[in-house]
Amino acid sequence: MHPVEVFRLRPDSVDLSVRLTPKAAMDRLEGIEISADGRSHLKARVRAVPENGAANQALERLVAKALGVPRSAVSVAAGGTARLKMLRVLGDPAALARGIEALSSA
Fold first, then answer.
1. For the structural domain made of 7-105, what CATH number should be given?
2. Is 36 exposed, middle or buried (0-12, 13-18, 19+ CB in 10 A)?
3. pLDDT computed for residue 39 by the predictor
4. Please, which residues have CB within 8 angstroms of residue 37's CB and are 6 or more apart in sequence?
5. Which pLDDT value is given to residue 62?
């Protein structure tokens, strides 16, 4: 994982750790959060409900838009029914890392 453990570079993608809160007032990314066990993740909120994958799809759209990649480049790789998820974002790892770091500091 990256030093702040939010993402891991892969040869053709980046794995991004996210904590998702569904049924929020608005869709937004809220920067880095550190959980009680010391792990870091990007905090995200979406308006969608966690039924039939709607919240996961909303998260994928939100992250794709924020990183400037196609929606099809973002998928939930692990944690489909959990709050803590691992997203896989396909693309140039260095460019994606810069985008994630910019989101993290916002």
1. 3.30.1200.10
2. exposed
3. 87
4. none
5. 97
Give the CA count within 13 Å in the CB-facing half-sphere of 19.
13
| Per-residue pLDDT band at 3 (split at 50, 70, 90) | very low
Question: What ranges do the domains of the chain cover?
Answer: 7-105
Torsion region of 41: left, alpha or beta (phi above 0 gives left; psi -120 to 50 gives alpha): beta
Q: 9-31 b/e with 16+ CB inside 10 Å = b?
A: eeeebbbbbbbbebebeeeebee
- Closest residue by Cα to residue 97 from 19, 6, 35: 6
Q: What is the mean pLDDT of residues 23-32?
A: 94
What angle in degrees, to the nearest 10, is found between the helix axes of 93-105 and 54-67? 100
**Which phi and psi angles does 105 have, rounded to 5°?**
-90, -5
